[in-house]
Structure formats: structure tokens, C-alpha cells
């Protein structure tokens, strides 16, 4: 069954308070999402395997640790997932990046795919699917389904804010995918918005309405 981890690191929670604040400017919002994405990636990658390597320091030769050839990939869900992408790449610059575009049908609330492009060796990589929000779960489920269809088998989902309803939907659809969350909120309202939430992440990232 999926592991669900809510990250309570003080720096993440501090920055999340400003991300939620309606008075935070577009510039500040974008910078904060970038920073929280990087902090979350630091925690998510805690279990990466290491190998011993020989290193010559200015003083003498010693044994140090390096990642043991682990291949990673990032797949942001367009468009809001782009806000977390650069922060994660600062930490893992060698990661390959794919993209999946989804929009929510206003009547059915189902996610509809309109674009998908993934690394050619996706089946060899640990994939992080990223999106600031997990509301109904429809977009996350569809994105992960698409990633699996292209060959990925090791997948994690990372988001800033989630509703309990979305978490349950994602767990049921993809029980093999672990979920990492900065904040688990109260519920969805009648319009399927996360409460208390942060508003529309895409609009706040790009200054649109």
C-alpha cells in the first residue's frame, strides 16, 4: 500500500505559511514554491543508495560516498508542476525531465491528457511526478497512469498541498506509488477546491486569472 508522508520540517512549514497567504506576490510565490520543491526533494531522496569511491583530497587519498548510478526523472504536471521543477533540478541537476499536460473537464471533473513527452529510458529511472496540489486526485492518477504506460515502474508523487479525498483516490488507483505532501488539508469544498488551500497554484505562479 502507498506510503503517505506529510513533511513537518520547520523550514517547509514556515515557507508554506507564506505560500498560503493571499498577500504573497507572484514573484514571492514562485520563489517559495521553488524553494519548497527543493526542500521536499531533499527528504524524498533520503533513501538513494551510495557507493564507496576513492578521492584524492589536498591532504591524502580517502574513501568517500557517491550516488551509485541511480537514474532519476522528474515529470511535472503542466502547468503548475513547472513551479516545483527548477527547485528539484537545483538539487538533482542530472535528472531527466518529462512533461504531461492535463486539464480538468469542467463538467465531469475528469482529467484529460493533451500533451505527453518523457525520457526515452523512463523504464530505467526513478520518477518523481510533481504537482503543487492534489485535490480530487484525477490529474495525479491520470499522469501516473500515463507514466506507467510508457514503462516507468518506480514512481513517487510529490505535492505541496493535498485533500484527504485526493490522497485516498490516488492510493486506491496506484497503491504502489508513495505520496509526499507538505501539508494535508481539511477537505474539498463543493467546487472541488482544497480547503483551506492556497487558491489556484497555476494562476498564482504565472500571474493569471
UniProtKB/TrEMBL annotation:
Named cofactor requirement(s): Mg(2+)
InterPro entries: PRTase-like, PRTase_dom, Upp_B, UPRT, UPRTase/APRTase
Any GO CC annotation of this UniProt entry: cytoplasm
Annotated Pfam families: UPRTase
CDD domains to which the protein is assigned, alphabetical: PRTases_typeI
A biological process from GO: UMP salvage
Residue stretches making up the Phosphoribosyltransferase domain: 6-208
Catalysis: reaction(s): UMP + diphosphate = 5-phospho-alpha-D-ribose 1-diphosphate + uracil
Cofactor details (free text): Binds 1 Mg(2+) ion per subunit. The magnesium is bound as Mg-PRPP.
A molecular-function term among this protein's GO annotations: GTP binding
UniProt-annotated binding residues for 5-phospho-alpha-D-ribose 1-diphosphate: 79, 104, 131-139, 200
EC number in record: 2.4.2.9
Gene3D superfamilies: 3.40.50.2020
Pathway entry: Pyrimidine metabolism; UMP biosynthesis via salvage pathway; UMP from uracil: step 1/1
Enzyme class (EC, first level): transferase
Residues engaged in binding uracil: 194, 199-201
Family from the record: Belongs to the UPRTase family.
Function: Catalyzes the conversion of uracil and 5-phospho-alpha-D-ribose 1-diphosphate (PRPP) to UMP and diphosphate.
Protein name as it appears in the record: Uracil phosphoribosyltransferase
Gene name of this polypeptide: upp
